[in-house]
Specification:
Blueprint lengths: L2 H20 L3 H20 L5 H6 L18 H6 L1 H10 L7 H29 L3 H12 L2 H9 L5 H15 L3 H14 L4 H11 L3 H17 L10 H5 L3 H8 L4 E4 L2 E4 H15 L6 H19 L13 H8 L4 H21 L19 H9 L1 H23 L16 H23 L1
Antiparallel strand pairs: 1-2
Helix pairs in contact: 1-8, 1-21, 6-7, 6-9, 7-17, 9-10, 10-12, 11-12, 11-15, 11-16, 15-16, 16-17, 16-20, 18-20, 18-21
C-alpha cells in the first residue's frame, strides 16, 4: 500500500475520532436514556412489560417520547450503560447533563464498530487471498464517510444490526444457507431494514418461488416472535407506530408517480426490478460479487427515490467495500463513484438536512448550527435540490451499470490502475464534515 494512501487513511480516522468526541446527534441522548430506562423499569416494577409506558413518561424531556423499537436491540447497550445508570440512579448525576456520560455511552457504538471491522477482515479473506488488499478494505470501512455520519456523529443503534447480518452474509458465502437464514432473521428482529437486501439474496439463491417465499417468511417470523412478550403491554402498540417497521413500509409509498388514478411508487418499481434481476441471475458465476451487489443496490435505490435519515447510509458499510474488493477490476471507477455519492450526500446534508450538525457539541455549553443551511434553502430552494439529486441518481445508475452481474469490459478508463488521489478525496469529504460542524460555532 502506498505511503500516501496510508497517510490519507490515518488522517480520515483521526477526523472520525474527532467527530466522535466533539459531536452528538440528538438521538444519542434519547437512545442512551432509553437503554437505562430498562433498568429503572425493572427496578420499579419487577418486569420489563412496563418499559414502553415508563419511557413514554419522558422524564428527561427528550425530543422523542415513544420508544420506536423492540427492547432487544437496546439490551446489549443497556448492559454497557449499567455504570452510568447506577451513577444516575444512586448518585443523582443525570446522564443528559454530563458530556462524559454520553461519551461513555457512545463508546459502546465504537466498540461494536470495532467488532464489525475485525470480522470484515475475516470476510474479506473469503473473497481475496491478498492480505494487503484485505487490510485496505478494512481501512476503507473505518474511514468511510457513511460510517462517519452514522457512527461517529449519529451514534445510532443501526450498527448493532450490521454485525449479525455480516455474519449471515459470511455464512451464505460459505454455502451454509440455513445459518444464513437464522442470522438474517436475527438482523430483521433487531431492526427490519436489512429485509430490503434479504429478499433479493433469497431470490438469488433459491429459484423455486414457493421455497423462496417460505424462506422470506421464516426470516420475518423472527421479527414477530419477540413481539409475543409485549402483546397487550401498556403503550407498546403506540410506541411501535413510531418505529423502523413503519418507516420501512413508508418506503413503498414514497416518491409517488401518478399513473391514471393510481399512485405508483418509484421506489417500489425500482425495488421490484432489483428483485426480478436477482431471481433471473443464476448466481453460479461470480457468486460472492452477486451476493454483495444485491445487498448494496437496494439501499442505493432507497437513497435515490426515498427521503431518508442521514445515518441510514451506514447500512452500506462494510458491504460496499467488500464488493469493491471482489470487483478489483473496477476499483478505480468504483472509488470515484463512492466519492461522488458521498460528496453529493454531504452537500445535501449540510444544506438541506437541518438536523445535520445542528445539535449541541458533546461538551456542555457549546451550540452547533450551520447558518449556511438556511441561506442555501432561501437562495436556491427546490431547484438546486432537484439538480443535486439528478446528479446523485446518475452516480447510482453508473454504479449499477458498471458492476451489473455478468458485465465484462475492456474499457481502459474503467480498468485503470487505482490512484491515490481518490483516497485523498475521501479524506477531504470527511474533513469538510468536521470543518463545517466547527464553523457552525464560529459563524
Amino acid at each position: 500500500m502506498k505511503k500516501s494512501v496510508k497517510l490519507s487513511f490515518y488522517i480520515s480516522f483521526a477526523v472520525f475520532l474527532a467527530v466522535c468526541v466533539l459531536f452528538y446527534y440528538m438521538d444519542l441522548k434519547t437512545l442512551t436514556v432509553w437503554t437505562v430506562n430498562i433498568w429503572d423499569t425493572f427496578l420499579e416494577t419487577g418486569t420489563f412489560r412496563e418499559y414502553y409506558a415508563y419511557s413514554a413518561r419522558n422524564l428527561y424531556d427528550l425530543p422523542h417520547a415513544m420508544v420506536g423499537s423492540d427492547i432487544l436491540i437496546y439490551m446489549p447497550w443497556a448492559i454497557w450503560n449499567l455504570p452510568i445508570w447506577a451513577l444516575q440512579r444512586f448518585a443523582g448525576l443525570a446522564i443528559t447533563e454530563h458530556w462524559w456520560m454520553l461519551l461513555y455511552s457512545k463508546a459502546f457504538i465504537l466498540g461494536v464498530f470495532g467488532l464489525i471491522l475485525s470480522f470484515t477482515g475475516r470476510v474479506a479473506r473469503e473473497i481475496c487471498d491478498d492480505k494487503n488488499a484485505c487490510n485496505k478494505t478494512v481501512y476503507m470501512c473505518a474511514t468511510s464517510a457513511f460510517a462517519l455520519w452514522g457512527i461517529a456523529y449519529g451514534g445510532q443503534n443501526d450498527v448493532l444490526v450490521i454485525l449479525p447480518f455480516l455474519y449471515a452474509v459470511y455464512m451464505l458465502m460459505r454455502g451454509r444457507k440455513t445459518s444464513f437464514l437464522i442470522y438474517a432473521g436475527i438482523s430483521v428482529m433487531l431492526k427490519p431494514y436489512y429485509l430490503l437486501a434479504i429478499i433479493p439474496l433469497i431470490l438469488l439463491k433459491e429459484k423455486k418461488l414457493w421455497k423462496a417465499a417460505g424462506q422470506i417468511i421464516f426470516t420475518v417470523l423472527f421479527y414477530f416472535l419477540q413481539k409475543l412478550i409485549f402483546i397487550g403491554a401498556p403503550m407498546y402498540a403506540e410506541s411501535m407506530s413510531y418505529g423502523p417497521a413503519e418507516g420501512l413500509f413508508a418506503l413503498f409509498t414514497a416518491s409517488e408517480l401518478p399513473v391514471s388514478v393510481v399512485p405508483v411508487s418509484l421506489f417500489a418499481i425500482a425495488y421490484g426490478v432489483v428483485c426480478v434481476s436477482a431471481y433471473l441471475n443464476d448466481g453460479s458465476k461470480n457468486e460472492k460479487e452477486s451476493i454483495l451487489f444485491y445487498i448494496i443496490v437496494p439501499f442505493l435505490v432507497m437513497f435515490g427515490f426515498c427521503g431518508f435519515d442521514f445515518y441510514r447510509t451506514v447500512y452500506l458499510v462494510p458491504f460496499l467495500y467488500l464488493f469493491m474488493l471482489a470487483k478489483k477490476d473496477r476499483g478505480y471507477i468504483n472509488g470515484i463513484i463512492e466519492c461522488g455519492i458521498a460528496g453529493i450526500l454531504l452537500f445535501y446534508f449540510l444544506t438541506c438536512e437541518e438536523l445535520f450538525f445542528s445539535g449541541r457539541y458533546l461538551f456542555d455549553g457549546i451550540e452547533g448550527a450551520l447558518p449556511f443551511c438556511l441561506w442555501y434553502k432561501d437562495a436556491v430552494g427546490i431547484y438546486a435540490y432537484n439538480i443535486l439529486f439528478a446528479v446523485f441518481l446518475v452516480f447510482i445508475g453508473g454504479f449499477i451499470y458498471v458492476n451489473r452481474p455478468g458485465y465484462q469490459t475492456e474499457n481502459k478508463v474503467l480498468l485503470l490502475k487505482e490512484e491515490s488521489w481518490v483516497y485523498w478525496i475521501r479524506t477531504l469529504i470527511n474533513g469538510v464534515a468536521l470543518i463545517c460542524g466547527i464553523a457552525g460555532v464560529i459563524l
